[in-house]
Write a structure and sequence with these properties.
This protein is mainly beta. It is built from no helices and 24 strands.
Length: about 260
């Protein structure tokens, strides 16, 4: 289940071979059921809510234009099981992650309009979770056990050294202009990095408990974090000291 970016609609994926779009306020169907040949494992919207990508229980995906009178879907055929998919922010391309082996996944990038596969010069090793595009779709950030890595999509090369922690890295996200990456780890720290050269920016943001997630605010001035104890504790941190007070203390949002 996933909201569209405006929070007005929900999409659900089902073993009944359909994806369905719902009005998030009334619960009514807002689109005819989207019928597939096999079980639908996952579905998600593009950033403009005009397209939908669905992943099937076989080795294929589908890209749908969910506006009235749209053409038939674009088919994305893979050689291995598809684990996850995500649109670029402009909706023009789709990134899919497939499991090649226990040690390696493949990150593939497709045209949303034609289904044509962009040449991928190398694999990305064993990674955890779904990689994230930079805002301009020129780079990826991946995570694997105790580090994250920024990649140049055009040539498959690493940009800078690994972004290292002392324990498992649970999330890695770009800021809104793609110049920084924030990582959250089970070593109880959040770190902010220069996305171009992999250098650490400032000091780690130390928490009392293991970190599960961190992300930038839209203006990149604060970072929201979620730490785990017996319950989940969340807060926001400034990404730089206040010009007046030098303060870098968090604002606690409580336990949820």
């Amino acid at each position: 289940m996933q909201f569209d970016p405006l929070g007005r609609r929900l999409v659900t994926a089902s073993s009944d071979r359909t994806a369905r779009i719902w009005n998030a306020i009334t619960g009514a169907n807002s689109f005819e059921p989207i019928v597939h040949p096999t079980e639908v494992r996952w579905a998600g919207f593009s950033s403009d809510s005009r397209q939908l990508v669905t992943l099937l229980s076989d080795v294929t995906g589908r890209v749908w234009d969910v506006r009235p009178g749209a053409a038939l879907p674009t088919r994305l055929k893979h050689e291995n099981r598809v684990m996850a998919a995500e649109f670029t922010r402009d909706g023009k391309e789709i990134m899919t992650v497939t499991q090649k082996s226990m040690e390696e996944v493949a990150v593939q990038i497709w045209s949303a309009a034609t289904g044509k596969l962009r040449p991928n010069p190398k694999g990305y090793g064993a990674i955890e979770g779904l990689p994230e595009f930079s805002p301009d779709a020129s780079r990826l950030v991946t995570r694997s056990e105790k580090s994250a890595q920024v990649w140049d999509i055009a040539n498959g090369r690493q940009l800078g050294p690994p972004l290292r922690h002392e324990s498992f890295v649970m999330s890695a996200h770009f800021n809104s202009d793609g110049t920084k990456v924030v990582t959250a780890s089970h070593d109880n720290t959040v770190k902010i990095w220069n996305a171009e050269n992999g250098q650490l920016i400032g000091k780690p943001l130390v928490h009392e408990y293991k970190l599960m997630w961190a992300a930038f605010s839209p203006d990149s001035r604060r970072v929201a974090t979620s730490a785990e104890d017996k319950r989940s504790e969340s807060g926001t941190w400034p990404t730089a000291p206040s010009s007046r007070s030098g303060n870098t203390s968090p604002t606690c949002l409580g336990r949820v």
